[in-house]
Amino acid sequence: MPYSTRRGFLGACSAAAAGSVLADGATARPAETATEQESALGETVTDAVEQALPAADADGATVAVIEDGEPVTTEGFGHAYRNPEVTVDPEVTPLRIGSVSKAVTFVAAMALVDDGDVDPDSPVSTYLESVPVPDQDAYDEPITLAHLATHSAGFEQRYPGQVAVDAADIRPLPSALRANDPNRVAPPGERTMYTNYNAGLAGQLTADVLGTDFATAVDRLVFDPLGMDTSTFDPLPRALVGGDDDAAAAVNWFSEMPPASGISTTAADMARFLHALVGDGAAGDGRVLSAEAVADLHRQWYTPHERLAGASFGMERQRRDGTLVIGHGGGVPNFSADLRLIPETGAGLFVAAHGAEANEVQAAAREAFLDAAAPVSTVEPTTDGPPARVDELTGRYKSGLVTDTTSFEKALYGITRPATTVRVANGRLVTDDGNTTHRWIEVDPLVFRRQDGRDTLVFDPTDGETYIYRATEPRGALRSVPWYGQSRHHATFALVAGLVILSGAVGWPLGAGWRRFRGGESPDRSLTRARMAAGTSVAVLGLFALVGLFGVTNRWLYDPPPGFDLLFALPSLAALLSLTTLGLTARAWREGDWPRAARAHVTLVATGLVTLCGLCWYWNLLSVPW
């Protein structure tokens, strides 16, 4: 079937009603049937995008819709990225799709499995030639392609090797993987920890098996068979910006991990991709997978809990009132995309948008599609009382990106990933992540459905901790956080410690100046040494804060310069000086040196410094990460 704009599709259907035959040899449906079909799903999605674009701060979008196993809509909206003079054409205007790239990467990997070239349950080290597996001997069980496809390999998420701010700085994939070099923080298969490195390593495995680079491998395995001629791993295709050189020069984000986030593509190309995945692996005259491999791609490869649909091979799974939905979302700066498949009905959606609030447009299209193609019913409570085991459920929870990261990025994730509060109100469980609040109804012990029926929440109390798994976020858990690990308490500790430290940093120099002016007696030499150690610690921590806040750029985070490690020696030095101050103060208390007020004040200042250094330790800022 031709892949065209909505208007082109309807015109083709009208011609088919007059007796035409489609290019693939199948007789077309009557025009009125096709129009009703398109209006039932394609119109719903395009109407949602048309309403969301002006309401959100977004500039353009492109959409592809599949229904009953056939494409019904490909359409563009708004203008090309940074170029108001060029409208989005679903056939020729690519948009960046972020992590939806992972779906393509793992289809390419499944093609190798389909051909018998790769065993998904064999160690990936068997196939990798260009890069080693980080911490390969950390656990007895080896990492397999299946672990990478379900993000259950146990890798932490790292910044280095993922992004370049200039196209000239982009490294080859093997070099970017080596730069990323994540630690393994869990045995393979134990739990999901969503990282770009999983897809990056799977992409390099695919390239190594074929003896080529990753982009060529995907061309050979996916793009060429399906005729996806406008899909590319080019870091900045000219069509993305409508051919405008000035617009291209203003772009400052480029993926260095293309298997995870590097594809730019059109709605027409993604219609072919969707067509193959909701069917038997073929689209038009091309085939990417066998029918058996498509079924294998869709099945559950991992789940953290039996009540959740878990993960397919490279995508997430969710059941909406019994209907299985498979898909993957994605976002990079100024772009947001989503892909959804409903295999049992042959429905599919691809949407990509760009602009400051592109995610609002993507979300509107996705929800309109799901509400029409896989509707859910609201959940009615069966009891009036509070949830069972309520004391084990309430509290604050953080993403595994925060709780399980061993490098300095833990602090960055702590800032960007706010905690989720779980409480009980009016007998119902309530979650609040600072942006959205939802009410949940218990349908089984420790299993909750959102009142609108669109999500499921499962609690798993284990070994004194509680994990939360969500149907709509199967790629990672939320983990309960004790009071001493909660950011709100850390902020209070830091504020109080800062005020106490400030009293010394300001008061001691003022006191010394006053004594000099009055001609007073100098303090005990050991007191002076204690104050100097504390003051130097304050200066070192201040320097660390200034460099961290104003000196560390994105370029430093993704491609650390030589000597970047030394930055993290500063809080370590401050900790040593703070302990020295505490030691001198303890000696003064023991031997009765210094005036009592001076002892008390220095003790408070030293305690404040140790508190700040302790926070640095908690957020992995005391250690050298590389």
From TrEMBL:
Residue ranges annotated for the Beta-lactamase-related domain, each copy included: 48-369
4Fe-4S is among the record's keywords: no
Statement: the UniProt record of this protein carries the keyword rRNA-binding: no
Chain ranges passing through the membrane: 491-511, 532-552, 564-586, 598-620
InterPro entries per record: AmpC-like (IPR050491), Beta-lactam-related (IPR001466), Beta-lactam/transpept-like (IPR012338), TAT_signal (IPR006311)
Keyword line: Membrane, Transmembrane, Transmembrane helix
Domain of life per record: Archaea
Designated name of the protein: CubicO group peptidase (Beta-lactamase class C family)
Source organism (scientific name): Halolamina salifodinae
Taxonomy of the source species: Archaea, Methanobacteriati, Methanobacteriota, Stenosarchaea group, Halobacteria
